[in-house]
Amino acid sequence: MVSASSLPLAGKTALVTGATSGIGLVTARELARNGARVILVGRDPEKAARAQAVIQQAAGPEAHVHVKCFDLSLLRNVAALAEQMQQEFSQLDILVNNAGIMPGRFTLTEEGHELSWATNHLAPYALTNRLLPLLDAAEHARVVTVSSVAHWVGEIEPDREARNSPEKYSWLTAYADSKLANILFTKELSHRLDLTNITANCLHPGMVNTSLMRADTSQVMKALWWTARPLMVSAEKGAQTTLYLATAPEAARVSGQYFAGRKVARCSERASSSNEANRLWRISAEETGVE
């Protein structure tokens, strides 16, 4: 029998958003199985409770698995989650920004942000920045953000009114733009944390068969999704690059990179632009109120 103290992540604390299903659930389960204290974040209390039970069973009775139920499309909930974390924990070793949606019909949140932009980009930006004190308190912390190869067709719209216009909305561009933002955010975060003990990387998990789509996703998108399903990989395989970046010793020396298949991968020209990254940071700070 393996003792808790001999597990590679014993004594470390990890937070995983979107952890109630798919890649997030597998990621949280494996972190717990390797000894980490894991905080699961999800919107649905029932799904979160089921995920907690699954992870607890897989990781054993000694595992520490906590649940936080927040809809992270709302920035006030992001702030509340960060506040709870700072009240309850003294450090955070691993932050996995995994939560994401494939947008359906055009939707504005109560706070006035297009839903996929708010969920896929503004939430990771605000949560990571609000948790920096806990990350900085760790001996060596890692921020891992799940992006997508879809970023290749993304473009950052600097004008919020244009981004929030139903007439200009497209589910494909909304998703691709948010995934491009994940990479630009990671690169700028890494640059700003260059002299700290915190690394930041992002990844494409592959085309994974998960519950990414919303119920109101267009019929065209659903048809494309079902057509592509035979080519998709499982959540188990899709989580491997996330887990590599969160745990591998060699990944501790890398920051500001985009990965696929556990290797540094080529990203788009826009995703490589330091000017674009800096501009996005300014836009994000203005829209979230978090610098």
Secondary structure topology:
Elements: E1 13-17, H1 22-33, E2 37-42, H2 45-59, E3 65-69, H3 75-88, E4 94-97, H4 115-130, H5 132-137, E5 141-146, H6 160-163, H7 171-192, E6 198-204, H8 219-228, H9 235-238, H10 240-247, E7 258-260, E8 263-264, H11 274-288
Parallel strand pairs: 1-2, 1-4, 2-3, 4-5, 5-6, 6-7
Antiparallel strand pairs: 7-8
Write structural notes for this entry.
With about 290 residues, the chain is an alpha/beta fold. The chain has one domain: NAD(P)-binding Rossmann-like Domain (Rossmann fold), CATH 3.40.50.720. It contains 11 helices and 8 strands. The protein has an 8-stranded mixed sheet with strand order 3-2-1-4-5-6-7-8, with helices on both faces. A hairpin with a 2-residue loop joins β7 and β8. α7 packs across α11. It is globular, with a radius of gyration of 18 Å. The termini are far apart. The model has no long low-confidence stretch (mean pLDDT about 90).
Question: What's this entry about, in short?
Answer:
Helix content is 43%, strand content 13%.
> Looking at the structure, what is the overall shape?
globular
CATH class: Alpha Beta
* Sheet with the most strands, sense and barrel status: 8 strands, mixed
Which structural class fits the helix and strand makeup? alpha/beta
Task: Give the number of DSSP strands.
Answer: 8
Q: What's the domain count? A: 1
Number of helices: 11
Low-confidence stretches: none
Specify Rg, calculated over alpha carbons: 18 Å
Indicate the CATH topology.
Rossmann fold
Based on the coordinates given, report the CATH architecture.
3-Layer(aba) Sandwich
